[in-house]
Amino acid sequence: MEALLTPPQLQIELAGKPLSAGDAQYLTELKVSERLSLPSQCELAFQGLPDLLGELAATAAGSTLTVRIGRDRSLFQGSVTTLEYEFAPANHLGLRIRAYDKLHGLRLRQAPRSYVDLTVTELAATLAADLDLAVAADETGPVWRLIMQHEQSDLELLAEFAERAGLYFHLRDSVLQFSSLAGRPATAVLKLGENLLEARIEANSGQRRQAVGNLAWDPWQAAARSGRADTARRPAGAESGFHAESAPEFTSTDDSVQDDNQAEAFAQAQLDHRTASATTFRGIAAGDAELMPGLAVRLDGLPGPVNGQYVLSAVTHRFDSRQGYVCELDSAPPPLKPRKRATLASVGVVTRVDDPEGLGRIKAMLPSYGDLETGWIGVACAGAGKGKGLQLLPGLGDKVLLALIREDPAQAIVIGGLYGDSPLPDDAVVDGDIGRYFLATPGGQRIALDDAERSIRLHTASGQRVELQPDKIRLQLDSGSFFELADDATRLHAAADLEIEAPGRTVTIRGRAINFEQKS
């Protein structure tokens, strides 16, 4: 392709100082790549350098990099992260300098943390608090009751929850701008043959859906949740495309959320993405620093059905001696990250049991997740149901086994308790197999079922006992008084005064012989 436009005057600063004229003569290409929900990258390519290890490389390493068009329009601000050295025949030396904007700082940070009751934009403000960035958004998405960061970098965490809300972000001029795939209002008109140099439109009917439903559930309350989206968010005046309106519906299943708003946001995000992917635009336009991801542009001069507005997802500003200054444009939305579907297990230590809603839930600290604390999570109990079930809830300090739904510790359920290194309340092994079973409380109440002796014993903390054995049944108080029914005799023993009375009724004592003995 022949040169298209004369490159504008570029202001390039390394380490706060303008690029010297001596170094600038070797600059063959400058490229600024901007993508939704990713850091922007700037790459400078130098060819024919007399010395690769000279002052330019030494100055660039780890320094700040600023690119302006003219004196006032900032195109890129960031820090150099990579130097790439090129060695070609005839001692031809090349150097590529790559830098990323401040969002790269979020990519480098990762630590277990939890965030409570915030939207995606509030999460962004929290994560970027030390980066001197402003956050702007037309939509904020649903409130997330609890987000637990684990393994993801700050950038991955932000992108994940923004995507679930159908939002995407882009940094320019220290403003982190959030928008849906409806984009920000169009300010640019690209006309084929004028400022639109090349265009390619792809219409893919396999992507479009008429509606998206989301069937979900809340692990915190074991309750069904759902959401639905019937109308995609699109820019006003979007292309009409070639698609019939009778596209099939899509239903997402088994999502884990805390309320219907979260379920609906995910359904809306799915519908927006499928709609934006159905008709996409790629092209090359005359250079314009105002073109950026998240901005809607209006195409003109194309066949009628594909004229209209498209939301840019990627813009590459390219400056070179062959093409001049052009912008490579793409409206295809970023691919959706596959949702995790596996359930993991982890150990927790119970920290709270006073569920404010009285639903028998607990909070637990997760040692393998940096001691993060869960929200109020349910406990699986045998036979649980309305007004029934075996209610054996873990207590403070108990070790519990948690199922982490979709690998998310914020969406957990207690599936059982663990003794760990704590001793058992009694020995359960008889002749190398389990022969005894126990129900014990921390306060000393106990029920023992012994298959070896075919007996059942109930002990209270104050010393009362009930014993059921094959040849006798015994009820005993801690004072020593007992009542015993045995095969060979029935005994009533009183360690205190004994009264037998039936006021107003008849007392009958009957037997072959009746003996009364006095014993002191």
TrEMBL record:
<dbReference type="Pfam" id="PF04717">
    <property type="entry name" value="Phage_base_V"/>
</dbReference>
<dbReference type="InterPro" id="IPR006531">
    <property type="entry name" value="Gp5/Vgr_OB"/>
</dbReference>
<dbReference type="InterPro" id="IPR037026">
    <property type="entry name" value="Vgr_OB-fold_dom_sf"/>
</dbReference>
<dbReference type="Pfam" id="PF05954">
    <property type="entry name" value="Phage_GPD"/>
</dbReference>
<protein>
    <submittedName>
        <fullName>Uncharacterized protein</fullName>
    </submittedName>
</protein>
